[in-house]
Amino acid sequence: MQKKIALTVNGRPYRIEIDIRESLLDVLRDRLQFTGVKQGCSVGECGACTVLIDGTPVNSCIYLAAWADGKTVTTIEGIARDGHLSPVQEAFVEEGAIQCGFCTPGLVLSTTAMVESGRSFTHDEVRRELSGHLCRCTGYQKIIDAAERALREAEKAAE
Prior knowledge:
Blueprint: E1 2-9, E2 12-19, H1 24-31, E3 50-53, E4 56-59, E5 72-74, H2 87-94, H3 104-117, H4 123-129, H5 141-158
Parallel strand pairs: 1-5
Antiparallel strand pairs: 1-2, 3-4, 3-5
Keywords: 2Fe-2S, Iron, Iron-sulfur, Metal-binding, Oxidoreductase
InterPro entries: 2Fe-2S-bd, 2Fe-2S-bd_dom_sf, 2Fe-2S_ferredoxin-like_sf, 2Fe-2S_ferredoxin-type, 2Fe2S_fd_BS, Beta-grasp_dom_sf, Diverse_Oxidoreductases, XdhC_XDHase
Protein name: Xanthine dehydrogenase
């Protein structure tokens, strides 16, 4: 069964006809060419497919595209501004929290959601917020360091 949906991805409106069984991941990658969204486990366990829907991190592999009707979706391609990395992306680079890069988009987006929430997070809360992401290359410490750095820098900028 087909359905027409309207959604905004990275600030650009789209109207697209989908199969009601299609995941948001498949629509973003295969139909709209946002290949920064990665397919990992396909069951919502690894976080590689994380996108922001109305500012909230969501595993797009288990989120039906039909549910995104009327929503705002942000992928990794949508957080850099005017050719410059976002502060969160910069923190990941500066802390060496990137190796192969497969898990990085999801981690950056989840960290972006924390930063944009405007609240403070303890070390344990940062770890909990990022616990839905699997990384096979790093030891996670640099990822946590990058997230905490981004949060600290956002707090300083808000002062």
